[in-house]
Design goal:
The structure is a homodimer of 305-residue chains. By secondary structure, chain A is mostly helical. The first copy, chain A, contains 14 helices and 2 strands, in the order H-H-H-H-E-E-H-H-H-H-H-H-H-H-H-H. In chain A, strands 1-2 form a two-stranded antiparallel ribbon. In chain A, helix 2 (40-50) crosses helix 6 (118-137) and helix 10 (211-244) runs parallel beside helix 14 (291-302). The two termini of chain A are 20 Å apart. Chains A, B: It comes from Shinella fusca.
Chain lengths: 305, 305
């Protein structure tokens, strides 16, 4: 287990470095076909929003899901991972805006609208979202057109009205009217679950996996998505408990009602164990090749930051 | 000419009605595959930003460019036109935000951030941008995957950092430091030209036209894009002149330096004639089938609103 965990950390880190390097290249000054100019300040704002040393968990999931089926699709998986990271980062840039969550800091750095201005943050987010689809469709992504079409469709559904963006709208609404448990589940599935599910399904699409394997990866993605959210909520709750004695005040207000705040820590810890076991069971058909993704499920369930 | 103009107006109106109806369907409550929920308020904000009775000039150009090659691709062209209109409308919703152009009214109606709130306007814009790529890739768009890939790539390049969004960044910067003539040309080519060029090129892609015809349509799109901008700037100038005696104060400040304000009305009117003639010459190989697009060039050059 410890050796496996070490291997996981090594893979996570080396994938993150590859993703960071690719994103830096994609966000360099070099003009692409059909581009008229790359305005310098907007490009800097995009880089600020993306090149922030994140864990790159979503690209990791694309790359390692694809790797279940061999090494042939690794370069394509990296590019699709970078596209997905553009979507994730755009959502952070927009969520941090004063009209949304109004955050001045992210990872200890000023957010884009603080480092630049609100207009730059809005346009940087818009441009990152657009760039994601550019990356998928670009000739440098060496995938069959049918795979590209499937990826564009799945990514847009995961990111848009019926996925992540809709989830952020529900999250803002939840500050005013607390949702019931079904509402919380829907909100979380949209806001964070949809991109994680896409990440794993995308790995299967990139690798040209069978429809059955694609469904399996999708369910694995859903399962770790649920675990990701519960771990997140558990962190909020225990951080509150440690620093304030109870989960009230601004943090609880920002954290809003969660399944964990409603059902308690013991329920959450048990549910995380169940979800990790489910993830392991789903990956059983891939036997030893699934070691990294099984470890990823443990990592997601047990992460402490 | 008058009969042709009447025919053009009829086509423009009937296309706009078809686009409006398709957009209304796409923005109905019906869940699509992979969507988790369609949050009602966000959906309403998206509808407010899109279903506004616009002329739908960009979809018209997609549809009529495709029609040069026959009727077979009409339904697909309509869908690609609707996708393009989602991009155009998202850009208006975001440009109207307080941090950008800060406009309260559009077409006599409150802008999305006034009718809803800023967060809703940001998310509605994000979701419309995302929906555009969804529409292109969706199975209901009955095009070969290679055409969908080409459309996603061309649309993302036209809309993103190196196109429309970059142009808006340059436009905001131009309020602080007036650009030179090259800067104005670049700004305008990005902010408004890129989507118009895409519209015409997309028609060729949708219709499966030859590479040569695709280049011709692209050049036609560039040409009418230039005419569009000069006509726009001319309207600003003459409207200012009519209401204020001269082009100064807030309107001129908002209008910023343009080729027309620098070179004058006579230059602009002459340049418009040249551009219409160029557009006609480009379309000559299509003979009588090009009547509507030739009339569109006249309409764009001579429009008074």
């Amino acid at each position: 287990m410890s050796e496996r965990h070490q291997q996981f950390q090594t893979f996570l880190k080396s994938n993150a470095e590859a993703v960071e390097a690719l994103l830096a290249t994609l966000l360099s000054g070099g003009l692409q076909t059909d581009e008229i100019a790359r305005p310098e300040r907007l490009l800097c704002a995009m880089r600020h929003g993306v090149l922030n040393g994140g864990k790159r968990l979503r690209p990791f999931l694309v790359i390692e899901s694809a790797a279940l089926f061999g090494d042939a699709a690794r370069e394509s998986a990296l590019r699709i991972g970078a596209a997905l990271e553009c979507i994730h980062c755009y959502s952070l840039v927009h969520d941090d805006l004063p009209a949304m969550d109004d955050d001045d800091l992210r990872r200890g750095q000023p957010t884009v609208h603080i480092a630049f201005d609100e207009a730059a943050a809005i346009l940087a987010g818009d441009s990152l979202l657009t760039l994601a689809f550019d990356i998928v469709a670009a000739p440098e992504t060496r995938l069959p057109d049918a795979a590209k079409t499937a990826l564009v469709l799945a990514l847009s559904r995961a990111a848009g009205l019926g996925g992540m963006a809709g989830g952020q709208a529900l999250d803002l609404a939840a500050e005013k009217v607390a949702p019931d448990e079904d509402g919380i589940v829907t909100l979380q599935a949209m806001k964070t679950g949809a991109l994680l599910r896409f990440a794993c399904e995308a790995g299967a699409i990139v690798a040209g996996a069978s429809a059955e394997d694609r469904r399996t990866l999708r369910r694995y993605g859903e399962t770790i998505g649920l675990a990701f959210q519960i771990a997140d909520d558990l962190l909020d709750l225990t951080a509150d408990a440690a620093t304030m004695g109870k989960a009230t005040g601004k943090d609880a207000g920002r954290g809003k009602a969660t399944l964990v705040s409603r059902r308690g820590q013991a329920w959450a810890e048990n549910r995380l164990k169940e979800l990790v076991a489910e993830a392991e069971a789903l990956l059983a058909p891939f036997s030893h090749r699934a070691g990294i993704l099984i470890e990823a499920a443990h990592f997601i369930a047990n992460r402490r930051n």
